[in-house]
Amino acid sequence: MTRLNWGMIGGGEGSQIGPAHRLGAQADGNFVLAAGALDVDAARGKAFAQKLGVAEDRAYGDWKEMLEGERDRPDRVDLVTVATPNNTHFEITKAFLEAGFNVLCEKPMTMTVEQGEEIVRVAEKSGKICAVNYCYSAYPMVREMRQMVRSGQVGRVRLVVANFSHGHHGDASDADNPRVRWRYDPGMAGVSGQFADCGIHAMHMASFIAGDEVRSLSADFASTISSRELEDDAMVNFRMEGGTVGRLWTSSVAIGRQHGFDIQVFGETGGLRWASEQPNQVYYTPVGGRTQIMEKGEGSLSDEAGRLSRVAIAHPEGFPLAVANIYVDLADAIKGETRDGLPLAVDGLRSMAAVYAAVASAQDNGAWVDARPPMFQ
Ligand code: NAD
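That is the input. Now the predicted structure with nicotinamide-adenine-dinucleotide docked in place:
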């Protein structure tokens, strides 16, 4: 099998998400790390890239140098991952798409709705793939839930309830720690704190499983630690195009909740439940029947869930291999196959539209607001 050349921007030594991308991209032999501009500090980035096996001439000091260095190479990278802080995603993603590279961008894809629309347009014009790393949607049992909804096993979805609430910013005495503080500073984080950071994962997953898009929403934001300008807790009610009702709670002050991402889908003939801290199981209850625990690796699962599982039943694969599933779909898509589970720029745009709608609603006492991007209204 020919490996695809892969380049990474951000995700340097000590970063949070960098290791998951490196494990994920290289887990199945699809990609080899061929180039990188890994760190905001050029020397650190070059040294770390070489430590990871990147040739000296492809260990770049910054992303502009990488763009110039890769642009005309016959063996140029087939995919670029953007894993830098949020306020750089737009500029880097746009530049690489315009130069004809496929891109996987971290979430949130952009800082504004206008930038999101611009990325959608640029990706379409370039004919290249622009994926967004909504990696939780790539857990095999999340794909299984999506297949069950698609095949009508729970009937029409009446209600989706999603939570992404953790307690890791709940210590008021740590609120001024620079690694925490920037997330609630509009100058660094944009218009929203916790909803833009975690809530959009939950909202994407609700759409992904229900097979429907958010049309309108009403939000209540709170800064429970009063020094914070942006919200650290949010409750968002939403309605989907097809009439499904959505409830979403996201918080960073829910002390005792660890990762805290879970979702329930309630249809006319059954219910489904999944939690990221026990990602191998889906609880399925048919109406009037007993709850069944479905397990990753079972023989009876859909082809989609089977395709994205590697190790035997009851063995955890975990977060890096959910990220790996994004790379599996990307490698297939780069080779021309259709992978409809891959989150794309339109999903990143819809998230940004939901963020701005939630901010407007919260500022207007929870008024219902159109959450669709202007280009889809
Ligand atoms: P981090 O602060 O831990 O690491 C950021 C890395 O990017 C550092 O190595 C830094 O040196 C490097 N960097 C910064 N500016 C750069 C530049 N201009 N060029 C090259 N490198 C640069 O941040 P993180 O927590 O890893 O988050 C990075 C991104 O990943 C964010 O957008 C975040 O929202 C996203 N994220 C996504 C998930 C997920 O589940 N999909 C999880 C965590 C973080």
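The first helix runs from residue 18 to 26.
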